From TrEMBL:
Main location group: cytoplasm
GO terms assigned for molecular function: zinc ion binding
Species this chain originates from: Phoxinus phoxinus
InterPro entries: MBS1/2-like, SERF-like_N, ZNF706/At2g23090_sf, Znf_C2H2_type
Protein name: Zinc finger protein 706
Entry annotated with the keyword Cytoplasm: yes
Record localization: Cytoplasm; Nucleus
Top-level lineage group: Eukaryota
Any one GO CC term of the record: nucleus
Length: 76
């Protein structure tokens, strides 16, 4: 078992290694989820991940508004 100076060196080396691993990942779950939201509703500015969800949202939340042209051919 390491003691004293050797233990401190080992801890510092491990901390540096863990920091490099964390830095190399470069993303977390929150930023990945935000990047997946590519469709934005023009009426309420909410974001959706795909056109099917976007069309369902638009039909349920904004029934009086005309359907945007990008959603014309999408099946809900």
């Amino acid at each position: 078992m390491a003691r004293g100076h050797q233990k401190l060196q080992s801890q510092q080396k491990n901390a540096k290694k863990q920091a490099e691993i964390k830095k190399s990942k470069g993303h977390d779950q929150k930023t990945a989820a935000k990047a997946a939201l590519v469709f934005t509703c023009g009426v309420c500015r909410s974001q959706m991940p795909d056109p099917k969800t976007f069309k369902q949202h638009f039909e349920s939340k904004h029934p009086k508004s005309p359907l945007p042209p990008e959603l014309e051919g999408v099946e809900a």
